[in-house]
Amino acid sequence: MGQTTEEKFNALKNQTGQVDGNKVAEVFDEAKPVTPDQLTGSWVGGSFDTGHPAHKKLGDVKWAGKDFRSAEDVDPMVVYGENGERVWAENYGRARLREIKFRGVVSTAMVYDNLPIIDSFRHVKDGVVIGAMDSKLLPKKAGTYYFYLSKL
């Protein structure tokens, strides 16, 4: 019997060094859709190093995660401040949640208010989602950036 989606996710998350982006995409595609209500709360962000430029950038800005207060009120980019506190990164603006079809599946996605970025989410297990960032800010050849969120 093969590995579950959660087992595949954990293996990729715990892998040291660069991760195969195609394997991360497979896990994303296998994961179940999420509803906006499942995302309510504060989440800690994690990144898969697939070679995508967003991985390094998020490390440089000390990415902490995302805060979802409601479907209409999201802090899409939360970073760690000087004292380790979670701080909204104002330059990224706010966002809202919508159900959007991405990679053939309708699931909840976060649409930035002021930037051409959409983050789509799928359920890995209770308290853990995998995300896929689709952005016009990066060259098309960069591809999809994959990340994950763990609920605080």
Molecular structure report:
By secondary structure, the protein is α+β, with helices and mostly antiparallel strands. The protein has one domain: GXWXG domain (Lipocalin). It is 20% helix and 45% strand. It has helices at 5-13, 21-30, 36-39, 53-60, and strands at residues 32-33, 41-47, 63-70, 73-80, 86-88, 95-102, 105-112, 117-125, 128-135, 145-151. Strands 1, 2, 3, 4, 5, 6, 7, 8, 9 and 10 form a ten-stranded antiparallel sheet that branches. Strand 4 and strand 5 form a beta hairpin. Helix 1 packs antiparallel against helix 2. The mean pLDDT is 95.
> How would you sum up the global shape?
globular
Describe the main β-sheet briefly. Answer: 10 strands, antiparallel
Contiguous helical run count: 4
Q: State the domain count.
A: 1
Which sequence of SSEs, written as H and E, runs from N to C?
Answer: HHEHEHEEEEEEEE
Determine the structural class based on helices, strands and strand pairing: alpha+beta
Distance between the termini: 33 Å
Quick take:
This protein is of the alpha+beta class and 152 residues long.
Features:
152 residues, alpha+beta, Lipocalin, 10-stranded antiparallel sheet, 4 helices, 10 strands, 20% helix, 45% strand, globular
